[in-house]
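ugh ok fine here u go
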Amino acid sequence: MDQMRWYAISREFNDVVRVWDEWRTTLRKHPCTESYNIVMGLYVQVGKDSDAVRVFRRMIEEGALPNCRTYTIIIEHLVRTRKLDSAIELFHMLPHVRIKRTLKQYSVLVEAFTIANQLDVVKVLLDQMRSDGILPVRAMLWSLQQMQSAGYDAETNELLRDMLSDGRIKMIGYSMDSSEDDSDDEDEEIDGNNTNAVDQPHLKPWLDPASLANALQNWGAEEVSALEDANLVWTTRLVCKMIRSFKSAETAWQFFCWVSCQPGFIHDIYTISRMITKLARQGCVDLVDQLLSKVEREGIQLSFSTIRLIIDFYGISRYGDPALRVFKKH
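structure:
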């Protein structure tokens, strides 16, 4: 697999296929799904559409299961060939075949339909993105600004406020954290460093969420006091990254409760989804139940992907009854 990836990055198409064929002869069953994705993606890049279809059909016939990256490749190809109706139709089908919709898929479709000036479709995509608990990345900034210019203020103001500079933040230097993809999915990373569209400032380089979370692992009175004295401006994106970075779900929960009391911050679908999956991953059933009850009382609709993750994590931890309870209730 590593050789295939290396050759794919350098666009050595023949070497990728050669390594794949050699690898297949050593296996008793089909290779992993990602190997099909690499070959199919390369066929698409060089315009060999029929060969790409053949690889996809071969994947199905040999018993390999397509994943979200497989469908991302197909969606990108449909967008590239200007078959936007087919691309959006496939995208809407994914939850019905239990495939997670990803940040990369949303990014590709939002950009394509913005360029095509089909802003009503972009509005629907943004609504679905929020429902799935996925935050937009800066690569979507141009699309959001086009939406705002067209009068879609209600749909874009909150997202743009989180992506653009906050007057309370002293902006100097560049952020050390280049990753904008907060999703725990198998899809490609989104380039969050593309700032050509807007000349925007960045957070101070010392504000690294992973390092900050690591320093707060004990969550004692001294650490909390120092955090309060720092007077940080808590945004949805920063809180999501903090929750993801905590090693302990209990510590993440303490931070989650603490930050909810900070001036100007309110938990939303993004932070709640992140916290619930963090707790479910580590088998914190009681805390998950508390959050699910809160979500139900406040009328917040969790995405299919979040519910599926809760059930999957419960299954891994062998919490059958809680998993069944969540399944029946949602």
